Structures are given as C-alpha cells and as structure tokens.
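step=encode ok
step=design start
structure_in=
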C-alpha cells in the first residue's frame, strides 16, 4: 500500500469518527431549535475522552510491559468522561 493511500485512510478514519460522534451528540437538535452548537461541541469532546480511555484499555490488554499504566489511565479517562456526562446533564 502506498503512503498516499495509507494517509488517506487514516484521515478518513478520523473524519468518520468525528462525524459519528457529532451525530451521536445531537448535531441536528440545534438546527431544528435554532440554538447554539455549544452542547454538540461539548458532547463530541466528552465522547473523545471516553474513546481515548477505551483505546488505553485495549492497549493494556495487548501490552506486556506497561499494562498497569494503560489500565489505570484508561479507567481514569472513562471515569472523567462519565463525570463530564453527569455534570453536563445536571445530575451533579
């Protein structure tokens, strides 16, 4: 596979994830209600924090030397994401 094709696939992967998270965070709600997109941006950022935690948990399963560091960091980021979600919805 050439370098150009590989870079295009990597770029497409991130565009796809960002688009999916924007739709998951309620992209169409501000358009319908004619309000601000701030909640969508915050929702996408919260989802990316959770995704980073999930990636670190995956790396902890595949790594031998830094397993505990990845495990702690992954669960920490997921806990931070959960805290942000609870704070964003007004339950804390």
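sequence_out=
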């Amino acid at each position: 596979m050439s370098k150009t094709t590989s870079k295009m696939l990597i770029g497409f992967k991130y565009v796809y994830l960002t688009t999916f998270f924007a739709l998951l965070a309620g992209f169409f709600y501000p358009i319908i209600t004619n309000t601000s997109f701030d909640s969508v941006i915050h929702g996408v950022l919260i989802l990316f924090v959770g995704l980073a935690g999930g990636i670190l948990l995956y790396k902890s399963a595949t790594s031998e030397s830094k397993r505990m560091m990845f495990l702690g960091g992954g669960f920490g980021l997921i806990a931070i994401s959960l805290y942000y979600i609870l704070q964003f919805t007004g339950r804390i």
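step=design ok
step=annotate ok -> Residues 3-88 form one domain.
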